[in-house]
Write a structure and sequence with these properties.
Blueprint lengths: L2 H15 L2 H7 L21 H14 L1 E3 L6 H16 L11 H8 L2 H8 L4 E11 L28 E7 L10 E4 L7 H6 L14 E3 L6 E5 L3 E4 L10 E9 L11 E2 L6 H21 L4 H10 L3
Antiparallel strand pairs: 1-6, 2-8, 2-9, 3-6, 3-8, 4-5, 4-7
Helix pairs in contact: 3-6, 8-9
Length: about 300
């Protein structure tokens, strides 16, 4: 399908995206409740030594990864939700209407609390990544997330961090993450105070690949230099992941409409955060299309 045809299909489907009934009909087995962070079977609390190791890794290297936690049936439902949204002709980010993606975050609550403290908040800045298993599929180019200046506390721990959850395996063949750990990045400290600082002084042998099984949570600070590699037609499956920002409750909200976790979060509020994220992350792409005003009007109409 040509890009023009995809845009036309998107516009034809867009009015339905504002309807709760549409999303329930699309995936009748998935809930859309007012309390999406509630899980029927909470994950057992990790050992304190493991949580301490997460904090130590974040402090030393500005990132860490958990072991696989999310159950296979949850991951299968997440994949189905994302693929059904794509098949409907809508951006995959609309999958965030479903409770299951917030429930997925809840399973990692202890790890989040270990780094951010109690009463952390969800920032309305979401992303869903679907990297096709082809030579054209690829992740983001090398970058730092770098949206917030000085987003570290007095101990050097992040007050805002990126959370990245694998729905399918992320491998070198279907685009895994590559990072430069903080302690191997000579420009990391400068980037904390100047968001324009890139990374060009590290040694290539210090680059670290992060092949990641399904159901793992990876997280990092605003200043970690990282990228997603190019995929290959030899990959067996797409790389499907979703990402959010979380912030400490000890600092002022870094954006409008942040959400205490756990908290009530109905469909209208969820749709607003999705629309805000789509505009924030894709405005340059949308603005370059001749009928972009129709899409941008929808996003503005549903943003609280």
């Amino acid at each position: 399908m040509s890009m023009q045809a995809k845009w036309e299909r998107l516009l034809s489907q867009l009015p339905r995206a504002g309807s709760l009934e549409f999303w329930r009909e699309l995936n009748p087995d998935l809930s859309i409740s007012d309390h999406p962070f509630q899980v029927p079977r909470p994950t057992p609390q990790p050992a304190s030594a493991l949580l301490d190791s997460y904090r130590e890794r974040m402090e030393e290297e500005a990132y860490f990864q958990t072991e696989p936690i999310l159950p296979p049936d949850m991951l299968a439902s997440m994949r189905k939700a994302i693929e059904s949204v794509k098949e409907a002709g809508l951006p995959a980010m609309f999958a965030f209407v479903y409770d299951i993606f917030y429930q997925g975050l809840t399973h990692f609550d202890a790890a989040f609390t270990a780094v951010l403290g109690e009463n952390y908040r969800l920032v309305p800045n979401f992303a869903v990544y679907y990297i096709e298993p082809s030579d054209q599929g690829k992740g983001f180019a090398p970058h730092r997330d770098a949206e917030y200046l000085n987003a570290l506390d007095e101990q050097g721990m992040p007050t805002v961090m990126t959370v990245w959850i694998t729905v399918t395996e992320a491998s070198p063949l279907n685009s895994c993450l590559y990072i430069v750990p903080k302690n191997r990045d000579p420009q990391y400290a400068d980037s904390v105070k100047d968001l324009s600082v890139t990374a060009d002084a590290f040694a290539w042998e210090d680059v670290r690949a992060l092949p990641t099984p399904p159901g793992v949570m990876s997280c990092w600070s605003q200043y970690l230099f990282h990228w997603g590699s190019r995929a290959s037609r030899r990959a067996q499956d797409p790389r499907i992941t979703y990402a959010v920002y979380l912030q400490s409750g000890k600092v002022e909200p870094v954006a409008e409409q942040t959400v205490a976790v756990p908290a009530a979060l109905g469909f209208t509020e969820r749709l607003s955060m999705i629309c805000r994220s789509l505009r924030h992350n894709n405005y340059a792409t949308f603005a370059g299309w001749e009928r972009s005003e129709e899409l941008l009007a929808f996003l503005d109409r549903h943003t609280l």
